[in-house]
Structures are given as C-alpha cells and as structure tokens.
Predict the structure.
Amino acid sequence: MRAASAEEGLRRRRRAVRLAPYALALPAAALAAVFVYGVVVGVLQGFGIMPSLGMNAFTFDYYAQALARPDFTASIGYSLYLSAVSSAIALAGGVLLAWALTTMRARTAVRMASLQVPILTMHALVALAVAFLFSGSGLVSRLLADPAAQSAAQSAFSVVGDPSGWGIVAVYAWKEIPYVAFCTVTIMMHVSGTLGEAAAMSGASPARSFFSVTLPLCAPAAVQAFVVVAAFSFGSYEVVYLLGPTYPKTLPVLAYMEFQDPDLVNRCYAMALNGITTGVCALTAAVYFIAARVQRRQEGSRG
Amino acid sequence: MARRKGRGASRAAACVLVAVQLAIVVVTLGVMAVWSFADAWPWPQLAPQAWSLRGYAIVFSGSSDGWPSLALSVGIGAASSLVATVAGAMGARAVCCHEWRGKGVFRLATMLPFLIPGTVFAMGVQVAFIRMGLARTVPGVVLAHAIVALPYASALMIDVVRARGTRLDDAARLLGAGRVATLFQVSIPSLAPGLLSALSMGFIISCSQYFLTLLVGGGKVRTFALAMFPYVAGGDRTIAAAYGVIFMVVTLAVFCVFRLLLRRLSWNADDAVLYE
C-alpha cells in the first residue's frame, strides 16, 4: 500500500518535472499565439479569405493586383532603399559609438544620456524635432536664409516630403544608432576588457586588436540588432507618414491607405501588400537566425 | 612610445565621437523644448519673439485630453510591461533551465514581433480582436502592447536567467523553503535587475505605440501618443512640442525610478552594469 502510493507519488513528480517547462512557457506562448493569429488572419485576407464577408475562395488575384499596380515597383524600391540605408547607417554608427564608449570607458551617466535617452524617445517626436530643425521653416533653413527672402516657402530646402527621404533616414539613424550601440556595448566592454587587453599585451595594435578580436566577437549581437532595425524601418508607419513624400509611398503607408478604404474588399488588397512586406521581413529574419545560431555556437565554444 | 601615442589618439577620437552624440541628443531635444515655450517664432528669426505657456495650458485644459490620456498611457504601460515581463521571465526559465520538445519553435515564436512589422500585425489583428471582443477596449490594447514588448522582455530575461542559473533556487528548496517562499524570496530577487530592465523597456515601448493603439483601440482608447499625434502631424507646433516635452519627462521619470530601484537592489555592481 505504502509502496504503491510512493510509486504513485514518484510518477506524479516525474510528470510534473516533464510538464514544468510547458507550464512556464505557456504565457509567452499564448502571447506569441495571438501575434501569429493576427498575422495569419491578415495574410489569409490577402488571399481573399474573409469569412465574415462570406469570402472563402483562395485566390492570388489581390497579390497579382498589388504587383501590377503602377506605383508598386517605386513603392517597394523606396521601402527597401529607406530600410537598407537606415539600417546600414545604424549598424556602422552603432558599432562606432559602442567602440567610442568602450574606448573612453564612459561613465554610466554618459552612456545613459547617449544611449538610453534616444531609445526612450518616441519616433514621432524625433520626426517632429527633425522637422523643427530641417523643414522649410526650420532652424537650419533660418540659419542659411537669404535675408531678401520673404517667406519660408522660398527657402532652399525642406526635409518634409523630400523624395530622397534623408529626413526619414536621419530619424532612424538618430533612434537606431544608439539602439545598435546599446545592444553591442555590454559585450564589447567585456571582450575589450579581457581578450582585447590580452591581444594588446601580446603586442597587437589597438586597431588590430579591435578588428581581429573585439569586432568578430561582437558581430553577432550587432547583426541581430541590425536585422531588428531593418525589419522595423521597412515596416513602420509613423515616420514615413510624417516626413515622407506623396510619391513614392512606402509599402506600409500604401497598405494602410487601402486598409482604410470604406470598401472592405480593399482590405484584401491591403493585406496582400502586407503579405509582401512580411515576405521581405521573413528573408531578413532568416539572416537573424543564422546570426543567432553562429552566436550560440560561439558561446558554446567559449564554454 | 608610438603605441601609447596611438592609444591616446584613439581615446581622443572616442571622446569626440561621444561628445558629438551627446550634442546631437541635446540639440534635438533642446529644440523641441524651446518650441514648447514659443508663442511666436516667425521665419526667419533665430529665436522666438514671444514666450508663453500656451502649449502646456492647452495640453492640460479641458479642450485637449492631456491628463486622462497621460493617466491611461501610464496605466496601459504598467499593465502591458508587467504581462510581458512575467511571460518573458517564465519563458526564459523554460528555455534556460529545461530541455523540452518545441523549445526552438518557442524561441522563434517569442522573437517574431521583432521580425514581422507592427503594421502588419496591427492590421491583421484588428479583425481577430473584433471577433474576440477585444477591439476598442483597454484590455485589448494592453494585450497588443504586451505582445510587442515580449521579444525585448524575453531576450533580456534569457540573458539574465542564463547568467544566474537555478543554483540559488535549488539551494533554497534543498534547505526546505516552500515553492512560494522560494519564488518570492530567492528567484524574484535574484532576477530583479533583469525584471526591472524588462519592465522599464516594456513601459517605454507601450507609451511609444501609435499605430498599433490606433488600430486595436479604434481611436476609442486615447493614449497620450494618440492625443499627441494630430499635433505632430501638422497641427500647432507649440502644442506638439509641449506634448513631446511632457512625454519625455514622464518616460524619463519612470526610467529613472527603475534605475534607482535597480541600483538599490543590485548588491553586485557588475550586474547593474550588465543589465542596465
């Protein structure tokens, strides 16, 4: 009797141990499931499946329509261009800033002000500040103003609505350089304090020790941050809406325009555009996971 | 000798770079602060011609919903960051301390909101939330914000849990502490630096959401970001700047509170550096 109950208890314990990770993972998995559900419902609408409207037939029509749009090429090209330029600047600038903070052994307060403050500033506010500085009536235009000019309309340049998109890039750079630096500076300080120091002791020049030791070890973290920035700048709405030109529009702005259309069938069209956005981001995601795997392997080999 | 000179030069370059970065941050936010107090700033004057508190007065007057939207933002930020942090911390324990089937899929799933843009999620989830009765409700917005904050919380907590392990928890259990006592007296305090970082990050992310809040809340859940956006998008510059300054002050204040707590709680200075 007692032996049986002991065995029963043991079995129960074993089951509890086996189920423990699933119980722990449950809340996060539930949140992720809602996310996936939302994305899938959207993607299905892109294929013409909207049960609430009685549409159940799978079709590629909306994708075909989206791809055939006259402004589609310009739109996806512009989105890719903005995202690529912004995230490349963020990566290079972020690593550089992390290097600078590491090299000068910046105090916590300095790191807070140069990294945390930009991270907690909302994108739309950075866009506002960039407009204050660089719009037609902005501070820089005032500084450069021809005294004869009578109004802001005659000023030489304006960041708002400029098709080159440099204002948008400036906002993303302002926000994401500190983000990339934030993601790399901790590991960089650690590596440069240990292995970098060892390299220097063995006679490596600061440049060589940085490029051969510190940078390769920080690369996975930097690349992961880069991918997050790339996906974000490709798919976000506010900054492009605030500072972007009327033509070309980026994919998310285009999709939201169609989404708002009173005709609900246009939603399928919006979702097809979103599906294309998701596809592009999935490609970058693949890069992310390869980087993550490389990092995990490195961590493994480091013990 | 030459080497030492090289090191000095790179140190100087580093200081210049950091100074430039600090200057950019200060100038950008400074311009916003100046505009928030400007009453009249005609082109091409380099300084405002008249100063006033008009912007702030309008934000907090009855005509604009400054106070209620600020309170709502703080509430939603607190709730969603708590949900994301608890989920992230539990998930991190599952990932770091257990071997189980589906772990890889789970990690991928929690990172998805990093990789698929919020706009795609927002437009898709709107219909789903209408079906679930969560659209245009505060709980719906909290849930959506928690989802967006989840990857940050997960990544942070996985780092912290991996560094900590479960040695302290195991020791406490071996010494006879109950589950609840172990959780509150050992696990949570030992993860406190990560938990606080995840909470403050989640709060910031929640406060900054415009598009997602607009779609999920249907314009009915008016957070501070929603109240602010029309002014930023081409309304009155003084009011927009006043909104911006208040947003910065509130998020910075919350961030500083978390920093102070973090410093208090971390007995080990290295940890504080690692997780800030």
